Amino acid sequence: MKSDDGSFFDEPTGETPVVSATDSRVTVTGAEIAAEAAEVIPVIDEATLLPHWTDAPTGQVPIVVARETSVSSDPWDAIPAPAWREGEADWVAHEEQFDASFLAGAVRADDARPWEFVEVAESSETIEDVTLSEVPAPEDVPRPQPRAQRTRRTLGHDPLAGRAARQATRSSVPMATLTGLVLGAVVGAVFLAGTIPVAVMVLVALVLATAEAYAAFRHAGAHPATLLGLVAVVTLGVAAYNKGVAALGAVTVLVLIFGFIWYISAKRTIDVLDGLGATIFVYLWVGLLGSYALLLISPRYSIDRHGLAYLFGAIVLGVANDTGALFMGRWLGRHPLSPTLSPNKTVEGTIGGTLLTLIVAAVVLPLITPWTLHAALEVAVAVAIVEPLGDLFESMVKRTLGVKDVGRLLPGHGGLLDRIDGLLFVLPTVFYLTHVLQLH
Known about the structure:
Layout: H1 31-40, H2 88-93, E1 116-119, E2 126-131, E3 150-151, H3 162-193, H4 195-219, H5 226-243, H6 246-262, H7 272-290, H8 292-296, H9 307-332, E4 336-338, E5 342-346, H10 347-363, H11 373-401, H12 416-436
Antiparallel strand pairs: 1-2, 2-3, 4-5
C-alpha cells in the first residue's frame, strides 16, 4: 500500500481496517442495504444448510415435491402434483395419478419397471413385452431381458403359447393316437367281461378324474375337502347303481351337510366358501354327471341287460365326435368356436366331429343290439350338440384355474378328466333319451 509520503515499502501493521459508509478511503456500493438486511433476516440454522461438498454422503434423498395436497377453491389445485417415485411401491401407491406411458402408445405392465412398457400388438393372439431402448435404465439396476411371447387367454399361468403350443400339439398327436388305441382296447375288453367289471371301471375312472380336479383347485389356491369329495363320488356311484335316480338327491344332501361339518373348525386363513364351493362343484361336475353311466347299466333301468349296449354306444359316439373334431380342425380349422374359452376348437372341427358322429351312428351302432338306425341317428344328433359343450365347459374351468391340462395320467391327452370331459355331458343325455325314445 502506498504511504502518505509515497513509499511502497512500509511494513504491515497487522491492524484490521474499519470499513464503513463514511470511510473516505474505500467505497462499497450497497453497503448500507446489506447492513440493514443483516439486521432483518434471521440467522439460518446450521442444520438446514447443505453439507459441504467435501463431506461424506449422508444417503438421504431430497424431497422434490411434497405429496400433500392443499384444500383450495382453485380448480387447478385438484390436479395431483408430481411426486418423487424411486421404488415399485411408489408406482403402485400412485396409480390414480397421471401416467405418461400412454403418450408413447403403450400400456403399463403390473410387473414392469418405470422405464419398461408392454406394447399391445395388432394381432389378437399374443402381446409382446417391449422395452423402450430410448430411455436409459439406471446403472445400478440390470437391464431386463425381453420376455417370450405369451397368450392373452391364460389366467395366473402362462402355458405354451402361439407357435410353441402348435408345435407341441403336432408332436403329441402320435402319442395321443397310440394312447387312445390302447385305452379303447382296454375298455372293450372290460365291456366283454360283464356289468360288474364295467361298474368298477366307471367308479375308478370317476375317482381318478375327481382327484385330478381337486388337485387343480388346490394348485389354484382353493382348499377343497378332497377326501370328502372322493368318498362322496364313490358313495353316489354305488347308490346310483343299486337304488337308481332317487339316490342322487339323497347323497347330494348328505354331501352338503357333511361339507358344512367339515369346515366348522377350519382356520380363519381358509376361505370356507371357496373351499366348500370347490368341493361341491367337482362333486356335481364329475360325480353327479358321471353317475349316469352307472344308471345306464343299473338293473333298475337296464331291461334285458341292454344297459351295457347303451353305455357302449354313448362312449363310441363321444369318441367319434372328439376324433372328427380333432383331425378336421387340424386340417381345415380357421374360425375359432369360442376364442375366449378355447382358441384351438374351431367351427370346422365341430362340423367334422358332427359328421363323423353321424357316420358312426349309422354304420356301427345298428350292429349292436338293441340299437336301430333311427334311434342311433337321433342320439347322435344330441351327442354332437352336448359333446362340444362339455369340452368348452372344461376349457372354461381350466382357464379360470390357469392350467393347460388338469392332469398327466394319459400321455398325449393330459389327465383322465381331459379325456372324459365331453362324455360327462353325453352320459345324462343318452340316459334320458333312452327313456324318452323308449329304446328299451
